[in-house]
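Changelog-adjacent note: as of this version, every example in the card shows the full chain rather than a window. The one below runs 357 residues end to end.
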Amino acid sequence: MKKILNGIASAIVLLALCAACVSTDTGNANAAPQGFPPNGLPPLPPGVVPPPGELPPLPPGALPPGGLPPPGGSFLDHSKITRKYLDLAYASNSQSEKLDIYLPEKGDGPFPVIIFIHGGGFSFGDKAENQVKPYMAGLEKGYAIVSLNYRMSGEAIFPAAVQDVKAAVRFLRANAAKYKLDGKRFVAAGGSAGANLVCLICASGDSTVFDDASLGNAGVSSAVQAGVSWYAPVDFGKLDEQLNQNGFGPGTHGDARSFESMYLGGQLSKLTSDKIQAANPVTYVTANVPPMFIQAGRNDHQVPWQQSELLANKIAAVAGKDRVQFEVIEKADHIDPLFETDENMAKVFGFIDMALR
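Full-length structure tokens:
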């Protein structure tokens, strides 16, 4: 076990070193990926959450309960994409508030936009990772692809992440003409924690509940016209119960150092229902929710497939069955390659084409 933990710690350091070598067209070429845990790189700035004593620090190399290790440093090769804008600041409160825009090689636009939101337990991940790679095929289909960063739980707890994503949508819409984007055709897509944020911005729509005017472009719509969600946690309070039901327990999402606890700023199992529900997309679904394509894996050991079913059922009940497509991929686990096959991506792009036509 000690060798495994040491190996994970080494992988985290290697990830930081690799990221520092990634060059970009604009911005800081030496910036490391965001969201390293408290004992990782770089050190957290003074005063950030979680508060000392409430959530005890992890031992070096240890993983949060209920979580997965950071990705293995696999970054998108965008060297052959000539039309791109990298490290654009969409707000000015944090260095994390940046995004990349990739445009099709042909055409003058305006291009419909796929906004990709990376996963990573709200505590790690980066817009430049290969998580976005399956969606890059959209460039050949005439879509602009946007990949964005947001504040991680080590920097700011909920609702900072969703406020950032909403601010990014407003920035893109306010600057649509400048970057040849179609401000009337935005679709959000993501997996895991990123999918939670996708679901939140879809469910909240034009509501100002997550709009922070200090992040810029106040008054501009932060709504998207469609959403694609892969294995999203949508009701944190039921995660462990559902994992136990599926035979993948004992669930540890309620532990003090779980990703969800760090994201919410307190131990999940001890928080009040109101605080938990405030972060759950199912809380905000209205009849105005845009069309959504929701997928989950039957063998998901991290986020049970019933989480996605909860959201799909809520959308169908409130907005109508025609507003949601829900599918469970048999034998698929969390972050499973089965989601990224050509066959499945054909379904994803088919949905996007239909939703934005």
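Structural remarks: Residues 116 and 147 are 5 Å apart (CA to CA).
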